Amino acid sequence: MELRHLRYFVTVAEELHFGRAAKRLYIAQPPLSQQIQQLEEELEVLLFKRSHRRVELTDAGQAFLGEAYKILDQVEQAKLLAQRTARGEIGKLALGFVSSTAFELLPRLLYAYREQYPQIHVSLHEMEKDQQIAALFARQIQVGLLRPDVDSSELCSEIILREPLLLALPSQHPLVSKDQISIHDLVHETFVLQPRHWALGLYDHVMKLCHSADFSPNVKQEAADTYLLIGLVAAKMGISLVPASVQSLHSQGVVYRRLEGDTTQIETAMVWRRDDDSPVVEAFLNLAQQETF
Amino acid sequence: MELRHLRYFVTVAEELHFGRAAKRLYIAQPPLSQQIQQLEEELEVLLFKRSHRRVELTDAGQAFLGEAYKILDQVEQAKLLAQRTARGEIGKLALGFVSSTAFELLPRLLYAYREQYPQIHVSLHEMEKDQQIAALFARQIQVGLLRPDVDSSELCSEIILREPLLLALPSQHPLVSKDQISIHDLVHETFVLQPRHWALGLYDHVMKLCHSADFSPNVKQEAADTYLLIGLVAAKMGISLVPASVQSLHSQGVVYRRLEGDTTQIETAMVWRRDDDSPVVEAFLNLAQQETF
DNA sequence: GCAAATGATATATAGGAAGTATCGCTAACG
DNA sequence: CGTTAGCGATACTTCCTATATATCATTTGC
């Protein structure tokens, strides 16, 4: 049995007339009769009652007609599904992200993506950099958002955000009222920072900055979680240096200031498998590249 | 697109190897490659990622595979459905019957039929003879159970039950204790009968019988419904003559007796449209013929 | 009883699916 | 690093079969 048989059968069942059905199918009448006979032979069932004057469906033909419609419809659906899936309009996307992207970058990307591809189910997984890379290899996530660099020939990456460092201060801190704050003003401050193993790139940036002013920061407390970190600043445990996007985490008792003369750029990159040509991923990457800030 | 494409696609998807898939399909490898290419061309979608070393499904291929399985499965289902419908194993059967068949014949037929064709939905419609014939013409019922004769070239009929007449007596009636009861013993009795228009054949049989003993029955009360008729006998409104199968309607206060020397046979027939070749009807008729009593 | 209508049959044709031979690329191996 | 085995694609041929043409057989309506 081929779909041809079903298409022909449906048409004859609709016309109840071999001649008209053949015309509608743009074939001659004899081959149509033959194909219907073939179908009946394979099913071992008579689908039509033919008198030389009238054609009508048998009970079995009636039953088969309903199924035939369903099948032909499902074929169309399958075609559409494949095309949409290929265009990245349907599917699943697992994203890894470092916590610092959760305040600005990730929400913006997600919002834009959802708008354009509402049928994609996106799952979000907060992970630190190394975990993300492992998860990419294990195909647990398809795209990661993290701080560069990534060194692997099997992965691709692209920087999608560069942002300055900001100083986070308790709101009653004396420096708040100062016009311009330079890195040298921080020599005797106590710091609250994320642990090095947790936020490698950021940590090293901060260290480099302090060393450029010939001091090592006095780290009183470490906190991996960004919410907690800002909370500690508000609680006057110390000051901190954070990527600018953290600013959108408006926390009472914390103010943010640029550091005079600091040109540090904190970079955020997207990472994905080089061999991943999934259209879902491709669509996400394209969109993210356009949305670059 | 033809089912061939789906069958080939599914096999390649299962094997992830064109050579092995071709072997399983009993065709050579090149035509298989070509058919898959055709399919991809029609869908405008790549279904497989081919490196010269490995074949794997794309996302779209994965999605399409699920649909392809469903479609092929549904084709099998459709085939089965048509065959079963043709064999009369699936469908609907509307039966008309006169009330007197409801006690013995109809239950027995139904029981046997349901056992063999549990998937058929049977609907039952109590109607008198003329209504049944009209309903057969109107295709509201497919088979009728009634008293012959039926005179129409468009209908077929066959007698499936012959039964004697029984005398129904109130249990305290003097005739109950008599050894042999003859029709002549009934000359002075009062009768309860079904109206002539309602039970044509039966009524005429009773009249003929009485006239053979040179009297006309004294009909005190008529009752169309058989239950009511027997109830009236129990209430000593009179005696009645009924087909033997009514006996299975065991009613307190009523006893049944054969009439000595009476050879009357009450006949019940099945009637159906001559042009009805529905397998459901055919199966029912066959079974009823075998079950004849 | 003849003509029109309609589906089946017989035969011819052509379009395309399958077969054969071969190529091109990759990866594993000595 | 060249060689070889594996595997899918391509080129070309063959053969099957779906389609077309012509005709027949049967029914029905005038």
Q: Can you offer a commentary on this structure?
A:
Two copies of one chain form a homodimer. Chain A is α/β, with parallel strands linked by helices and 293 residues long. The first copy, chain A, has nine helices and eleven strands. Chain A has helices spanning 3-15, 18-24, 29-43, 59-86, 105-116, 129-137, 200-212, 226-234, 279-290; strands at 48-50, 55-57, 91-97, 120-126, 143-146, 155-170, 190-193, 218-222, 240-243, 254-258, 265-273. In chain A, a hairpin with a 4-residue loop joins strand 1 (48-50) and strand 2. In chain A, helix 1 crosses helix 2. The longest helix of chain A is centred in the N-terminal third of the chain and has 28 residues, at 59-86. Chain A is rod-shaped and about 105 Å long. In chain A, 34% of the residues are buried. The mean pLDDT of chain A is 87. Chain A binds chain B through residues 1-4, 42-47, 49, 58-64, 67-68, 70-71, 74-75, 77-79, 81-83, 85-86, 90-91, 277-280, and chain B through 1-4, 42-47, 49, 58-64, 67-68, 70-71, 74-75, 77-79, 81-83, 85-86, 90-91, 277-280. The first copy, chain A, binds a DNA duplex (30 and 30 nucleotides) through helix 3.
Quaternary status of these chains? homodimer
Shape of chain A: rod-shaped
Proportion of residues in extended strands of chain A:
15-25%
Tell me the greatest interface. Answer: A-B, 38 and 38 residues
* Radius of gyration over C-alpha positions of chain A, nearest whole angstrom: 33 Å
Number of helices of chain A: 9
Low-confidence stretches of chain A: none
pLDDT averaged residue by residue of chain A: 87
Secondary structure tally: strands of chain A: 11
Helical proportion of chain A, percent range: 40-55%
H/E series of chain A, N to C? HHHEEHEHEHEEEHEHEEEH
Largest sheet of chain A: 7 strands, mixed
Head-to-tail CA distance between termini of chain A = 57 Å
Structural class of chain A: alpha/beta
